[in-house]
Amino acid sequence: MSEKHDVTGAPTTGHVWDDDLADFTNQPPKWWMLGLAASAIWVVVYWLYYPSVPLPTSNTFFKGVGGWTAIKEMEADKGEVDAVRGKYEAKLKGMAPAAILADNDLTEYVKRSGKVLFGDNCAPCHGTNGVGTKDKEGLFAPVLNDDDWLYGGKIDDIYASISGGRQSMMLAHHPSERELIELEHMEKLGLPGAEAHNIALGLTPHQIDAVAKYVLALSEGKGDSPEVAPGKLVYMSSDCTGCHGLDGKGNQAMGAANLTDNIWRFDGSLEGIKYTSSVRLN
């Protein structure tokens, strides 16, 4: 470099390396200085136009001379969306689900808007794309993409489930400690009707174990196996049949699950079925 440019007498910072390397004190190029000045001016303009400086003493902030806020921008954007959606929303009022599906334009609209509504309101429990969610006790919310429906899968059934909600009718089958002592005492004395009294109050741990084994066998098509006959007797004698039916195929009007299809609302293991049979699950 020194061979091509004579730097004799050029001002330097005074720092020298390797005997002949020094830092010049030349000013930056004019284009660079102009860019720096323009940037500084832009910062000042931006700072004055938009909300920027907090004012801690008055618990507020400098609102800017432009009057811009994120809320105003959001409302403006929302207004544009509402203008597009308005014509569809006006038609939907008072329409039955079947009538909506008979209109191609409305069907396409509700599919698109429904996906957004599902993500905002339903996905936290039912999971993205309706895959369901699980906690330590098993399935927390039903799977919605398997075409297995507790209360029916027709459009009117689904509408009723969403608009009115669903509450389980299953009762807890685990009696209290006091009831267990009374039942045990009755059975020891051989009092007549002890078994019926037992089932009326709830199922003992032994009975819950037996009926869980029967339900598991029922889901595998082995409900008539002699090994699960004690559990079948408990199932037929208790209130299980009132909802799930004698054949275990359930009742959609009551939201009682089909116990024969091997599709489980909660944990389908033996321990999971025992737990489901012991407590009231929605």
Which features would summarize this protein structure in a list?
about 280 residues; 6 strands; about 5% strand; 12 helices; Cytochrome Bc1 Complex, Chain D, domain 2; two-stranded antiparallel sheet; 3 domains; mainly alpha; two-stranded antiparallel ribbon
Molecular structure report:
This protein has 282 residues and is mostly helical. The protein folds into 3 domains: 12-54, no CATH class; 75-164, Cytochrome c-like domain (Cytochrome Bc1 Complex, Chain D, domain 2), CATH 1.10.760.10; 177-278, Cytochrome Bc1 Complex, Chain D, domain 2, CATH 1.10.760.10. The protein is built from 12 helices and 6 strands. The chain has a two-stranded antiparallel sheet with strand order 1-2. Strands 3-4 form a two-stranded antiparallel ribbon. The chain has a two-stranded antiparallel ribbon with strand order 5-6. A hairpin with a 2-residue loop joins strand 5 (133-135) and strand 6. Helix 9 packs across helix 12. The protein is elongated. It starts with 11 loop residues before the first strand and ends with a helix. The model is unreliable at 191-201 (pLDDT under 50).
